[in-house]
Write a structure and sequence with these properties.
The protein is mostly beta strands and 833 residues long. Helices cover 14% and strands 42% of the residues. Strand 8 (192-198), helix 5 (203-216) and strand 9 (222-227) form a beta-alpha-beta unit. Helix 3 runs parallel beside helix 4 and helix 5 (203-216) packs parallel to helix 6 (232-250). The longest helix is centred in the first third of the chain and has 25 residues, at 163-187. It has a ten-stranded mixed beta sheet with strand order 2-20-17-3-14-15-16-21-18-19. Residues 1-11 have low confidence and may be disordered. The chain has nine helices and 54 strands.
Length: 833
């Protein structure tokens, strides 16, 4: 598609690392990092989530493990508040993926919101049941009981201004707190109990509560309250300081603090917002869990589907990668809402400094002070990457490296890293490593530009304002606006774009679709022949997702039109990026997760610039590798000797620099690397995803029994899917697959389901998961969890490693006790292609 039109207004361009300023340009903001001002060991306390897990396997292990979650909050087993998210159930995946502690929201045993107040006598038997179940668990010491949730609003109304009424309500709460506290301890003497868990910070209540708890010997082991207003970005530090002052006045040793609900809808999934919250919690060494405003099982808006990262996930992955001590960061405007904020770490053993920052658009200078020449040498390599906002349900590839630059440490020990054209919703990571000899490979940053839908020419639509400071629980939108009500036959949005060269461009469309099925729009260039763009369903019109397509454009100005198709879609923004070759990413070995005692070699800054990781027997490095779809990709280890790569349970020996063809699942893949003695710089992954050599079987090819049957569907790949599967032992679907050779394969299931249970909650969408038992040959069945796909007509994929013999293999799906998901088709790819 090509054409020409008059020039358009300039769009937002890619950020850069630069050193020159045009005359008269605004002075950049300055964020200062002092590497000698330690704040204590990196705690990673602010990476938790309320109802971040919904089921065992949702989110996936590969999405959960890299985040190194320190705490989550979930409901008691069988709690009626929501249909899933039971603490004991999700503890299996949480603990096997390195999770820390689980807060049990005990009052979520009740069905209604706010909780039905049936009196303490009704509550106590429920408390007994919860504590007996948890105390019997082998990991009982990793659960924390939260007896009351938001008592300042629910049941006790402790926020009233009338002092007499407050004291009456307070005394009732204190009696019940003591009763429940002692009831828990009677059953579980070693129980850890948290509270009072207010909806907002109240110095009056906390002073009284701590005085009472100290006097009556019912002190919580963890202090909890919520920070749920946009004003918390301004006020939390004062709240924290006030609370610690209360402890000192009362002679109470500092308690562990967990802000077990934080942030608003407009913050979740947005890296530039999240860095503001996380920096203030990490600086004060408190734990904190993101709030549960929407659906369970996606780490509160940071995991797409079950296994796909968005921009928020990558920010938390960076946060999980901080090691050593955090150090003092001085932002331009401390304790100020929606401004540039950051956190930083120094690991003297690894000889790395990292800075995470964001929250403001424009230009900034990051000044790192007291860069030790003994530690780093006379030069450092500065590696700068960006995690952009991709929506709540928009996939985000490996963050693009914007710059790899060798900088000289100034005589006064400072290094200045200038960032230009920062995006407000993005977060940025700066890694400083010793410069060594050589020169790092220059970062390749393709041309890119963004265009807001509200600034385009709109026909038959309306501009809406979303998540702002004054409407903090509105959903995030790029530029705080989107275009909706595109509901008439003539509805369209015309984007005027200008591109520098003739070629292929990646077009990313931030959209919303709550039609209950895949919806379409018609995309045309300069009024030419349209092509159909299909948008998967989303939770609601403003729960933003991202659709990626490609367009061919000639150099110059064009009009890209998105016109109404078969259903209504909202539009937020489009991004155009020049396609400069097949997608590729280099994963730095010195930034990988490690075990054992590998050493760090910075003698050369060649390649990725961050040195090399030296692996010996007993050492391991794990890389988080992104794939846009289930397919084969080229993986090349940049190493001095052979290494062993383990993926999906398969291990293969990789010669240095020699490409391997490996099957990756859509989203995140954990690739473990070991060696007898090898220096590894990076793991390089490239390709758009090839399905050559994969096996594919439509639902119609399966043998069906016990009521399972084919159902016609225009949205299924071959016009039908397997429905009514499960809910009895006899209801099964059996595929016969012909494996070209024995070994480990990835079984990719294309499925759909939209099970829900409406609990009548004010704001949560209570989606449910389904399970299927998958049996391969004579092996034992394996239970697999399939997350809700938002509609019955949207097909997602889930990859399951299986071992096949050469020739015919039976792969059977069933569920004896409940309905399994609808199955469109299956694919199989051998792990090593």
């Amino acid at each position: 598609m090509a054409g020409t039109l008059p020039a358009a207004a300039p769009a937002a361009a890619s950020p850069t690392l630069g050193f020159a300023r045009a005359g008269g340009a605004p002075i950049p903001q300055r964020l200062t990092v002092d590497l000698t001002a330690s704040e204590g060991p990196v705690m990673r306390g602010a990476n938790g989530a309320l109802y971040g897990l919904s089921d065992d396997g949702v989110p996936s292990d590969a999405a959960l493990e890299p985040l190194k979650i320190t705490s989550i909050s979930q409901k008691p087993e069988g709690g009626a508040q929501h249909p899933n998210g039971d603490a004991l159930t999700v503890s299996k995946s949480f603990f096997r993926n390195g999770g820390g502690e689980i807060n049990v929201m005990m009052q979520d045993i009740y069905a209604k919101w706010p909780y039905e107040d049936l009196g303490i006598d009704d509550y106590l038997p429920k408390v007994d049941k919860i504590v007996k179940e948890i105390s019997a668990d082998p990991n009982s010491d990793r659960f924390i009981y939260i007896p009351f949730n938001e008592p300042d609003q629910i049941w006790y109304k402790l926020g009233v201004s009338d002092q007499a009424q407050y004291e009456a309500n307070r005394d009732r709460f204190f009696r019940d707190w003591k009763t429940v506290y002692q009831r828990i301890r009677a059953i579980d003497p070693d129980a850890k109990i948290a509270g009072p868990n207010e909806a907002a910070y109240h110095t009056r209540l906390l002073t009284d509560f701590l005085t009472f708890a100290q006097r009556e010997n019912v002190m919580p082991q963890v202090m909890t309250w919520h920070e749920l207003g946009s004003g918390s970005l301004r006020d939390f530090q004062a709240h924290y300081d006030d609370y610690r002052a209360i402890e000192r006045r009362l002679g109470i040793a500092p308690l562990k603090i967990n802000i077990d609900e934080y942030a608003n809808r407009r913050d979740l999934s947005v890296p530039g917002q999240l860095v503001q919250w996380v920096s203030m919690f990490e600086r004060n060494k408190v734990y904190a869990n993101q709030a549960y405003w929407d659906a369970a099982g996606n780490m509160d808006g940071n995991v797409v589907r079950s296994n796909i990262p968005n921009g928020g996930w990558w920010f938390f992955r960076w946060y999980a990668g901080l090691t050593g001590d955090t150090v003092k960061v001085t932002p331009p405007q401390p304790h100020t809402i929606d401004t540039l904020q950051g956190l930083a770490s120094l690991d003297t053993t690894r000889r790395q400094a990292q800075v995470l920052l964001g929250g403001s658009a424009g230009d900034s200078d990051v000044v790192v002070r007291n860069v030790s020449r003994n530690l780093f040498g006379r030069t450092v390599t500065a590696t700068v990457a960006e995690a952009a906002w991709s929506g709540y349900e928009g996939q985000h590839a490996t963050p693009r490296v914007l710059a790899r630059t060798k900088l000289t440490v100034a005589a006064d020990g400072t290094v200045t890293v200038p960032l230009r054209g920062m995006h407000k919703m993005s977060a940025y990571r700066i890694v400083l490593t010793p410069g060594g000899s050589g020169t790092p490979s220059a970062a390749t940053v393709p041309w890119s530009a963004s265009y807001e839908a509200e600034d385009a020419a709109i026909t038959g639509g309306q501009v809406y304002t979303q998540g702002t400071v004054s409407n903090a629980n509105g959903y995030a939108a790029s530029g705080t606006k989107d275009v909706g009500s595109l509901s008439t036959a003539a509805s369209k949005v015309d984007f005027t774009v200008t591109v520098p060269e003739t070629g292929t461009y990646d077009l990313a469309i931030l959209y919303g679709n709550q039609s209950g099925a895949p919806a379409t729009q018609q995309l045309s260039v300069d009024g030419g022949e349209p092509v159909t763009v299909s948008y998967p369903s989303t939770e609601n019109w403003t729960y933003r997702a991202k659709k990626d397509v490609t367009v061919r454009l000639t150099a110059g100005t064009h009009v890209l039109t998105l016109a109404k198709g078969d259903a209504e879609v909202t539009l937020d923004r489009i991004d155009l990026t020049a396609r400069t070759g097949e997608p590729s990413a280099s994963y730095e070995a010195t930034l990988a997760d490690i075990s054992g005692r590998p050493s760090y070699d910075y003698s050369s800054s060649a390649g990725v610039g961050t040195g090399a990781l030296v692996l010996r027997s007993g050492d391991k490095a794990v890389f988080d590798v992104y794939a846009p779809r289930d397919a084969y990709y080229t993986v090349v280890p940049r190493s001095s000797a052979a290494v062993q790569l383990t993926l999906h349970g398969e291990t293969v020996t990789a010669a240095p620099g020699r490409p391997l063809r490996l099957y990756l699942v859509a989203g995140n893949n954990r690739i473990a690397t070991t060696a007898q003695n090898a220096s590894v710089r990076s793991l390089d992954v490239s390709g758009a995803g090839s399905t050559t050599g994969t096996l594919s079987y439509e639902g119609a090819s399966a043998g069906l029994a016990g009521g399972a049957r084919l159902v016609d569907s225009a949205h299924a790949s071959a016009g039908s899917y397997i429905g009514w599967l499960g809910n009895s032992p006899e209801s099964t679907a059996e595929f016969t697959v012909d494996a070209p050779g024995p070994g480990r394969y990835l079984l990719v299931v294309h499925y759909a389901h939209n099970d829900r249970r409406d609990n009548g909650h004010a704001y949560n969408t209570d989606i449910m998961s389904r399970t299927a038992d998958i049996t391969v040959g004579a092996d034992a069945p394996r239970r697999v969890t399939f997350k809700n796909t938002w509609s019955w007509d949207d097909y997602w994929t889930l990859g399951v490693p299986v071992d096949l013999k050469q020739g015919a293999n039976k792969v059977t799906f069933g569920n004896a006790s409940a309905w399994a998901p609808d199955i469109d088709r299956i694919e199989l790819g051998r792990i090593v292609g």
